[in-house]
């Protein structure tokens, strides 16, 4: 039966992985090596309390900082909503596409992964935005995801970002940077 329905097996495997991770997920990070890019120990030593504190100034400040982005991604994983950030990042990358030949393929891939109903990492957007994006992808331009990306950005900013700032991940990270100073 599995060979006849490989897409179901893939979905089941993904669900088993997610369910298996439930017992390992935690809103606490005492070891930040898992969330920081490149050389984590050096990265944590270079991250100042001032930089980490600035992430609370605005959501865009957080997104523009390499380690802020990594910490926010780790937080979203604990809430099983990292697809929002991954979609936002995919759109940012998409806007840098200079090859018109690659534009259509990239647009289709982003649409199928994040926007289409039952997409593997479907983001939570309203029907009108989904349909507008579907039409935009038919004749893709660098702005074809703007409305959907804006909605997802707004959702993260109003919903996930305030929870991140109150999270143990963020407060533990701040504590670690402050402890280093003493």
From TrEMBL:
The keyword Cell membrane applies. It is a peripheral membrane protein. It is found in: Cell membrane; Cell projection, Dendrite; Nucleus; Perikaryon. Keywords: Cell membrane, Cell projection, Membrane, Nucleus, Signal transduction inhibitor. InterPro entries: RGS, RGS_RGS8, RGS_sf, RGS_subdom1/3, RGS_subdomain_2. GO terms for cellular component: dendrite; nucleus; perikaryon; plasma membrane. It comes from the Eukaryota. Pfam families: RGS. One of its GO terms (biological process) is negative regulation of signal transduction. PANTHER family: REGULATOR OF G PROTEIN SIGNALING, REGULATOR OF G-PROTEIN SIGNALING 8. This is Regulator of G-protein signaling 8. The lineage of its organism: Eukaryota, Metazoa, Chordata, Craniata, Vertebrata. The gene is Rgs8.
């Amino acid at each position: 039966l599995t060979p006849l329905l490989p897409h179901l097996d893939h979905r089941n495997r993904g669900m088993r992985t997610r369910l298996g991770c439930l017992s390992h997920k935690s809103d606490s990070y005492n070891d930040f090596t898992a969330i920081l890019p490149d050389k984590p120990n050096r990265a944590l030593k270079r991250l100042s309390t001032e930089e980490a504190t600035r992430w609370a100034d605005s959501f865009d400040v957080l997104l523009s900082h390499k380690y802020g982005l990594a910490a926010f991604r780790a937080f979203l994983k604990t809430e099983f909503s990292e697809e929002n950030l991954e979609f936002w990042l995919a759109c940012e990358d998409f806007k840098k596409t200079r090859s018109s030949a690659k534009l259509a393929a990239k647009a289709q891939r982003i649409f199928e992964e994040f926007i289409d109903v039952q997409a593997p990492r479907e983001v939570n957007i309203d029907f009108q935005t989904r349909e507008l994006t579907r039409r935009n992808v038919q004749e893709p331009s660098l702005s074809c995801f703007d409305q959907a990306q804006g909605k997802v950005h707004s959702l993260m900013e109003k919903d996930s970002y305030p929870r991140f700032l109150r999270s143990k991940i963020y407060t533990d990270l701040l504590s670690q940077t402050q402890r280093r100073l003493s």
